[in-house]
TrEMBL record, chain A:
<feature type="domain" description="PROP1-like PPR">
    <location>
        <begin position="132"/>
        <end position="279"/>
    </location>
</feature>
<dbReference type="GO" id="GO:0005739">
    <property type="term" value="C:mitochondrion"/>
</dbReference>
<dbReference type="InterPro" id="IPR002885">
    <property type="entry name" value="PPR_rpt"/>
</dbReference>
<feature type="repeat" description="PPR">
    <location>
        <begin position="183"/>
        <end position="217"/>
    </location>
</feature>
<dbReference type="GO" id="GO:0005634">
    <property type="term" value="C:nucleus"/>
</dbReference>
<dbReference type="GO" id="GO:0003730">
    <property type="term" value="F:mRNA 3'-UTR binding"/>
</dbReference>
<protein>
    <recommendedName>
        <fullName>PROP1-like PPR domain-containing protein</fullName>
    </recommendedName>
</protein>
<keyword id="KW-0677">Repeat</keyword>
<dbReference type="Pfam" id="PF17177">
    <property type="entry name" value="PPR_long"/>
</dbReference>
From TrEMBL, chain B:
<protein>
    <recommendedName>
        <fullName>RRM domain-containing protein</fullName>
    </recommendedName>
</protein>
<dbReference type="InterPro" id="IPR012677">
    <property type="entry name" value="Nucleotide-bd_a/b_plait_sf"/>
</dbReference>
<feature type="domain" description="RRM">
    <location>
        <begin position="7"/>
        <end position="95"/>
    </location>
</feature>
<dbReference type="InterPro" id="IPR000504">
    <property type="entry name" value="RRM_dom"/>
</dbReference>
<dbReference type="InterPro" id="IPR035979">
    <property type="entry name" value="RBD_domain_sf"/>
</dbReference>
<keyword id="KW-0694">RNA-binding</keyword>
<dbReference type="Pfam" id="PF00076">
    <property type="entry name" value="RRM_1"/>
</dbReference>
<dbReference type="GO" id="GO:0003723">
    <property type="term" value="F:RNA binding"/>
</dbReference>
Length: 1330, 104
């Protein structure tokens, strides 16, 4: 104390104070209280900002330093630190590992990084922070990072903050040994260290040293001494320091008062604590929330929880403190003060409006518990309390998830036990993260332990096999476990030998060990699941894998399978397709061998596979196609096994089947299929015909046919007796057969419609009794079947009886919307108000369903029954909230003609437009031609908050257009003006297109099509136009973003099928986003096949989105071609033609033969449009390419239009590029086309062009093996004076080979003439290559 | 164009406790499903929190989209309607095809 007094006297010399303060008080209160930004913790702030005081140049780390990655990471973390006053271990780890990789770090970053290992590292306890800091220090030494005094001071700071007991003498000696001289900060921190230990004597010695060295003393030193005195049990001296400070001219700061409060808090003297907190207020340096929370933590950590509430009262002045509270909670949990932390969590200000079902507050708290592996029972207690208080709905499974996120698999597994005990679901996939984390840690026992727990705890064996092959086996293999051990040991955990073997086999396949997988199969018995094999083989389909091992693998699997159909056949087809693709490149060298192998092993494919392959390889030699045809399985199950589920179910059309039967009149299978198909689609005549043919031949109808016949008589013939007859026959002949539910249901519907309700009920019950398992699956057929039965009822009572039967028998769940809808329909028709209300209320309450809600509302509106209407509204409000219900009411009032009442609802304060609902009603009015109601809806909602007026008026225009009232449609534009609103491009384009179609003039400017992605980028204003949509689109954008990465990976791996499959359900923009992330070089092949597939699907929008990306020219061209193809396929050709016309570029790339072909067959009238675009481009821009392509197409189709065009457009003959046409002609063996082109080129006297066409002609003859024709062509080439060098080399060689082979003389090639181009790279060639 | 007519939905905000079976069970009540999936990160074993369901018919799809809230194991799901979302973005193309969900 005396020393401090002396020092104080020493440091305060008149006139020196202001300067001293300015230099040393960077982090102290005198300046900081005036700073606009107040850091949560002064201690941290000081350590952070005191660079100046330490004599280190404060430099903002520049992003462009020599080691960019670690520096960039540091910048991010520092920014975070400044914002939240804390960093997590997860943020630091990647920096340290990057530093480790790069081996270098800038001076300032090395300092900052070290400093982050103090209290700022909120989610680690002091001991582990110290360990990390020391490890980092060692790394600095290892990589020769220059260590200056600042680094030593930072290390001291970290030591102090983590309460480490170290020897100051040794530390100073180490500094000295490294040639670093301690500075003022070093001494300050050493003083702090002594004081923290309560060693005043040691601190005083350092102070004396500082004095001798004439180093200035600042408030931090005084604060340290306060702590020192308190810890050495001398509170009086501590208290008197404030006075000493004042004497030296230093004003106590809020840190001073915090230090005092903390010191007394440690001692549990709450009155003193409060005294100093109050004193700080009086002195106008109030403790900040973060500082108050430090006091809170000091009380808690020293076991004085009884006073915690008193500290909290100081926090309730409205200053936000949640970020500090999160830090303190973490610190408390790290040292085991869970209750104090929880108390703080409960006190933290919470959002005012949270729905109990959605509340997830306090995840940080649960996460901290998981991170520090707090006792399970305690955690369960917290979770339950949070649930009870409705702050967090999570059950303990959330903690298990958080434990995984914290990489604590063993702890997570202990929660699985608890979950099981609590009756919560436990599923196989809950164990997957544990398997991954144990794999990462190379913890073999951990993996086995996880399997043991999964086997014991999981509710079902769902996903068990996937667990084994995707997670457990790769994990075990990674730990070095041998194959034999894996296979035998996993059997201890509920896996059979064959399952284990199969999983191991899949693992080998997955890890690209094809040969090993084949060998493995040879001497292991397996349970084959072909779907899993198929998934594994997908990745092989993009590689050039030899066909042999692939088919050997399948053959082996076949020999081990009891059933080989459906997926197995499709897999065979998939492998075959890849093999044939490679064969095509190699000139079909091994094709015969492949087919021989398949035949020998009786490996078949489905009919639809054959058709697809035949189409894909349409240019293949005939014998290949024939053999392909011979591979088709006689078993049609795979072709039809999709049942009623989807459009793929009968992939041969009725006409195709008829043709098939005509061609093979003795093929019973085909006849059976035809009969099934005819029954299914209701071609009664055909069905009867085939049926009698088959009957005459003594064919025994299989159960499927009987069921289908019953279906036909019930559904199409409406003959109850006949339908019943076939069902009876089916049930007596094939009592085991189950799948005729559709027939039973259709028959029931028919019976009901004929008034035989009771008979229908009996039939339904009988089937349900016989085949309870099928009924309870509730998987077939579609809900419509059930609703039809109820709808057919004559009155509400009958409907109810039927509905109850369906529910009781378990055909449909009790909340099935279509069924409830049908019933409610009947009920409302009955007009029984009480019953309608009662049952509607019942459905809402018990099933959370509101069947026929609009009809019910309208019923009471029309009845003018406000009481019941109110009741319906009340009960609906509970279900959907007032806003949604109001939307119903608005539309229903309008529909019932009560526009005033609808308007009244609009006066509700806070009413917000829900565009999804409004769009629905608009659409509904348009569909029902209710234009008055549509007008009223648009009018009434005019002032609605959050309304998308453009959308509403757009619907209005659609309504008028739908009624062909174009004048009023145009008038809506005036309404736009009245409302000071600009119609969107979409609206204008829609109106313009329809006006044009109607032959009316378009008097306004029509904007270009802009893909939606761009529109969204325009800014938040357009995004937020309507709230409900914007939340959805935000979610969608997030989803798109998250999908993009995955899509990108798949594209790069060339997994086109996967991309397409994922894309099916992905958000719009996901693919475009993925393409922007692609690394160069471009995966051209994959992208092109994606484009092609999208075009086939008619997915114009995705392709358009893609066209906004920067792509290399060839990809852009491919994209253009596919955009047009997609437009043609989706019937949106006009839209794209509009675009082409407006952009006016040389757009020949859009048109391809195949898309023009489709266009020609689908909408021939649009060919004229394409033509006029082509002509305009020539006349306006002299772009010939588009028309040239069109001409070639006409030529290819042998259309007279080609000739006409030539006559119409002078000079077109000179500009057409015939490359593509020649190629197609060669491929399709159209010698006549080539001859005609040849004539044209000769007439034009174009030597290059002539030579080019000749090259193609030669190739064609070679392909056909026609030596005579070849000889003739060669002769005419010679005659025409075309040099050998002008002809494409490959064609010449092939021609010469064939001629030699057939013992024909080689042509006497003309001498190379000076004007012929020998480079064989004419425009046509280039064009062709492209 | 069976691809374009696919009744497929993106299902987001799935809790980690949910896998294919749960999603499938939940959405089957709206109609027959052709497929259901939940996407997992094979490196970490964790669910990515989203998946897809594909309905066999439009009815099921429409019923699912028409419902205001979907809550599965305590999480409010977000449905990214592949089919209708796409339509709304391209309403200019052919608004007559616009798929508009039914209310409630």
């Amino acid at each position: 104390m005396a020393a401090l007094m002396r020092c104080a006297r020493f440091c305060v010399t008149t006139g020196q104070i202001p300067k001293l303060l300015r230099v040393v008080s960077t982090g102290s209160s005198q300046t900081s209280v005036n700073l606009p930004f107040q850091h949560p913790s002064a201690a941290i702030q000081r350590s952070w900002l005191s660079t100046l005081a330490e004599g280190v140049e404060a430099e903002e780390p520049a992003p462009s330093t020599s080691t960019p990655k670690v520096e960039a990471l540091m910048i991010t973390v520092e920014r975070y630190m400044r914002q939240f006053g804390r960093v997590s271990r997860k943020q630091l780890d990647p920096i340290v590992s990057t530093f480790d990789k790069e081996g270098t770090i800038s001076l300032s970053s090395s300092l900052s990084l070290l400093r982050l290992h103090g209290t700022a590292l909120f989610d680690e306890p002091p001991a582990s922070r110290l360990k990390l800091a020391q490890a980092l220090w060692e790394k600095y030494k290892k990589y020769d990072i220059p260590l200056e005094v600042g680094h030593y001071n930072a290390l001291l700071g970290v030591y102090n903050q983590n309460k480490m007991d170290y020897s100051p003498t040794e530390f100073l000696a180490d500094m000295e040994a490294n040639g670093v001289t301690p500075n003022r900060v070093t001494y300050q921190r050493l003083i702090a260290r002594f004081c923290n230990m309560g060693d005043i004597q040691g601190a005083t010695q350092v102070l004396e040293h500082m004095k001798k060295a004439a180093l200035p003393i600042n408030d931090q030193v005084f604060n340290s001494f306060i702590t020192g005195h308190l810890r050495s049990n001398d509170p009086e001296s501590a208290q008197s320091i404030v006075e000493v400070m004042r004497q030296t001219g230093l004003e106590p700061t809020n840190t001073t008062y915090m230090t005092l409060a903390i010191g007394f808090a440690e001692r549990g003297e709450i009155e003193e604590v409060k005294k100093y907190i109050n004193q700080a207020e009086i002195e106008n340096v109030p403790l900040r929330p973060g500082q108050l929370l430090e006091v809170y933590a000091a009380l808690a950590m020293n076991g004085h929880n009884q006073y915690l509430k008193e500290i909290m009262t100081y926090l309730q002045n409205g200053t936000p403190y949640n970020q500090d509270a999160i830090r303190i909670c973490n610190q408390l949990i790290a040292v085991g003060c869970d209750d104090a932390a929880y108390q703080l969590f409960l006190e933290m200000p919470k959002p005012t409006r949270i729905e109990a079902e959605q509340a997830t507050l306090g995840r940080f708290f649960l996460r901290a518990l998981a991170r520090h592996q707090r006792p399970v029972e305690k955690v369960v207690e917290f979770v339950k309390d949070m649930q009870a208080r409705e702050v967090n709905k999570d059950n303990i499974s959330a903690v298990a998830q958080l434990a995984y996120l914290e990489n604590q698999p063993a702890y997570a597994l202990s929660f699985m036990e608890k979950m099981k005990a609590e009756g919560l679901p436990v599923r196989a996939h809950f164990f997957w993260p544990a398997l991954c984390q144990f794999k990462e840690a190379k913890n073999k026992e951990g993996i086995y332990d996880t399997l043991e727990k999964m086997n014991r705890l999981a509710d079902s064996r769902d996903d068990f096999n996937q667990t084994l092959h995707t997670y457990a086996i790769p994990g075990l293999a990674a730990t070095g476990e041998s194959e034999a051990d894996i296979l035998s040991k996993v059997q201890n955990y509920g896996f059979q030998e064959k399952e284990a073997n199969f999983a191991y086999f899949l693992y080998l396949l997955d890890t690209n060990k094809l040969e090993k997988a084949i060998d493995f199969l040879k001497d292991h018995e397996v349970n084959v699941a072909m779907a899993a094999v198929r998934a594994c083989l997908m990745s092989y389909m993009r590689r050039d894998v030899d066909w042999k091992p692939m088919f050997q693998l399948l053959a082996q699997l076949k020999s081990k399978s009891t059933v080989w159909r459906g997926t197995a056949l499709e897999t065979t087809a998939m492998v075959l397709k890849r093999a044939l693709m490679l064969q095509r490149k190699d000139g079909w060298a091994d094709a015969n061998e492949i087919f021989a192998f398949l035949e020998a092993n009786d490996m078949r494919i489905l009919r639809r596979n054959q058709q697809e392959l035949a189409e894909y390889f349409s240019g293949a030699p005939d014998d290949v196609l024939q053999k392909l045809n011979g591979l088709v399985s006689s078993d049609t199950a795979g072709d039809t096994d999709r049942g009623l589920a989807g459009p793929m179910s009968f992939d041969l059309s009725l006409e195709e089947l008829k043709a098939l039967v005509r061609q093979n009149p003795n093929n019973k299978g085909a006849q059976k299929r035809l009969l099934l198909k005819a029954c299914g689609v209701g071609d009664v005549e055909e069905a009867e015909k085939v049926k009698s043919t088959l009957e005459a031949e003594g064919f025994v109808f299989p159960p499927q046919v009987l069921g289908q016949l019953a279906y036909m008589y019930a559904m199409f013939v409406k003959d109850v007796e006949k339908a019943q007859h076939f069902i009876q026959e089916l049930e007596t002949t094939f009592p085991e057969h189950k799948n005729y539910q559709a027939a039973v249901l259709k028959l029931a519907a028919l019976q009901v419609s004929q008034g035989q309700t009771d008979a229908a009920v009996d039939a339904l019950k009988r089937y349900a009794d016989r085949h309870k398992d099928i009924v309870e699956k509730q998987s077939i057929p579609k809900p419509q079947y059930f609703s039809d039965i109820v709808s057919a009822a004559a009155d509400a009572d009958a409907a109810k009886k039927l509905m109850d039967t369906l529910f009781e028998c378990g055909y449909v769940p009790r909340d099935s919307i279509p069924v409830l809808d049908s019933y409610m329909d009947k009920l409302v028709d009955s007009g029984d108000s009480d019953r309608i209300l009662a049952e509607f209320e019942e459905f809402v309450k018990t099933q959370r369903r509101s069947p026929k809600v609009d009809k019910v509302l309208q019923f009471f509106i029309n009845k003018e029954d406000p009481d019941r209407l109110q009741k319906v509204v009340d009960v609906l409000t509970e279900l959907y909230g007032l806003m949604n219900v109001f939307h119903h009411l608005i539309a229903d009032f309008i529909e019932c003609g009560h526009i005033k009442k609808a308007r009244k609802i609009m006066e509700t304060p806070g009413l917000r437009a829900n565009m999804q609902r409004l769009n629905y009603y608009c659409q509904s009015f348009i569909e029902r031609n209710m234009i008055k109601e549509l007008e009223a809806l648009a009018e009434v909602t005019k002032e609605m908050f959050g309304i998308d007026r453009d959308n509403m008026l757009f619907h209005l225009i659609r309504g008028y257009v739908n009624q062909k009232d174009f004048e009023r449609a145009k008038d809506v534009l005036v309404q736009y003006e009245e409302e000071m609103l600009a119609p969107s491009a979409r609206t204008l384009r829609f109106l313009a297109r329809n006006l044009e179609t109607a032959g009316l003039p378009v008097s306004f400017e029509v904007p270009d099509y802009q893909p939606p992605v761009q529109m969204e980028e325009k800014g938040p204003a357009t995004k937020r136009k309507e709230t409900p949509k914007s939340t959805v689109s935000q979610a969608a954008a997030t989803a798109a973003f998250s999908q993009a990465g995955q899509l990108k990976d798949s594209i790069e791996k060339g997994e086109v099928e996967k991309v397409l499959a994922d894309l099916q359900g992905s958000e719009k923009g996901a693919l475009a986003a993925a393409v922007t992330q692609l690394k160069r070089p471009w995966p051209i092949e994959a992208l092109e096949s994606i484009f092609e597939s999208l075009a086939k699907q008619g997915d114009l929008d995705t392709l358009k989105e893609l066209s906004m990306n920067r792509l290399p020219v060839f990809l852009r061209n491919s994209l253009k071609a596919n955009i047009f193809a997609a437009a043609v396929n989706s019937g949106r050709t006009e839209e794209v033609l509009d675009d082409i016309e407006t952009v006016k570029t040389n757009t020949g790339k859009y048109f391809t033969f195949s898309s023009l072909d489709t266009l020609h067959s689908k909408t021939p009238e649009l060919m004229d449009r394409v033509e006029s675009i082509g002509k305009n481009l020539i006349s306006e821009k002299n772009y010939t390419e588009p028309l040239s392509v069109l001409w070639c197409y006409y030529k290819y189709r042998n259309s007279p239009r080609a000739e006409e065009l030539m006559n119409e457009i002078p000079g077109l003959d000179k500009s057409v590029l015939v490359g593509a046409l020649c190629d197609v002609a060669v491929e399709e063996k159209k010698a006549d086309v080539l001859e005609s082109l040849l004539k044209m080129k000769k007439d034009l006297d174009e030597k290059q062009g002539t030579a080019f066409v000749y090259s193609s002609l030669l190739q064609l003859h070679v392909n056909q093996g026609d030596a005579d024709a070849l000889e003739k062509t060669c002769e005419s080439i010679v005659k025409d004076g075309i040099a050998r060098a002008s002809i494409r080399k490959s064609s010449v060689k092939a021609a010469e080979n064939l001629l030699t082979e057939k013992n024909k003389p080689l042509p006497a090639w003309a001498e190379e003439s000076s004007d012929s181009d020998s480079s064989s790279s004419s425009d046509e060639e280039k064009e062709s290559k492209r | 164009m069976s691809g374009a007519r696919s009744f497929k939905l993106f299902v987001g905000n799935l809790p980690w406790t949910v896998a294919r079976r749960e999603v499938s069970e939940y959405f089957s009540k709206f109609g027959t499903l052709r497929s259901a999936s939940v996407v997992f990160n094979q490196e970490t074993g964790m669910s990515k929190g989203y998946g897809f369901v594909e309905f066999a018919q439009k009815d099921g799809y429409s019923s699912a989209v028409a419902q205001d809230h979907h809550v599965l194991e305590g999480s409010k799901l977000t449905l990214g309607s592949f089919y209708s979302g796409r339509q709304s973005s391209s309403a200019a193309g052919n608004p007559a095809n616009q798929e508009i969900s039914q209310p409630l």
